[in-house]
Amino acid sequence: MVNGEDEVTALRARVRQLEKINAALMDRVERSGDMEGGAFSMFETAIALESVVRDRTSALEAAMAELAAANEDATAARVLLRDAIESLSDGFALFDADDRLILCNRAFLKIFPAVEPISGDSPEFAEMASRVALTGSTLGAATGPDRWLSDRVDWHRRAEGAHVQALGDGRWIQINELRTSDGGIVGIYTDITSVKAEDARQRALELAERNLALQATLDTLSEGVCLFDAQRRMQAWNEGLVRVLGLSGKDLMRHVESHAQLVQWCSWRLGLECADSLAWREGDTRQLSADCLMDGRHFVIRSVPLGNGGMVFTFDDVTDHVSLQRSLTETAELLERRVEERTAELVEVNRQLVEAKNEAETANRSKTSFLAAASHDLLQPLNAARLFVSAMDGLKLAERPRALVSQASTALDSVEDLLEALFEISRLDAGAIQPEVADHSLGAILHALRVEFAPLATAGNLQFDVVETDAWVRSDARLLRRVLQNFVSNAIRYTEAGRVAVEVTEIQGMVRVTVRDTGPGIAASDREEIFGEFRRVGKTQKIPGKGLGLAIVRRVSTMLDHPIGLDSVPGLGSAFSIMLPRVEPVAAPKPVEQPSALPTGNGGLVLVIDNDPAILSGMEALLENWGLEVVTARDPSEPCVAAALARRPAMAIVDYQLDDGLTGEEAIAALRARTDHDLPAMVITADRSEETKARLAALSLPILNKPVKPAQLRALLRQRDVL
Question: Are 469 and 514 spatial neighbours (Cβ–Cβ below 8 Å)?
Answer without folding.
Answer: no
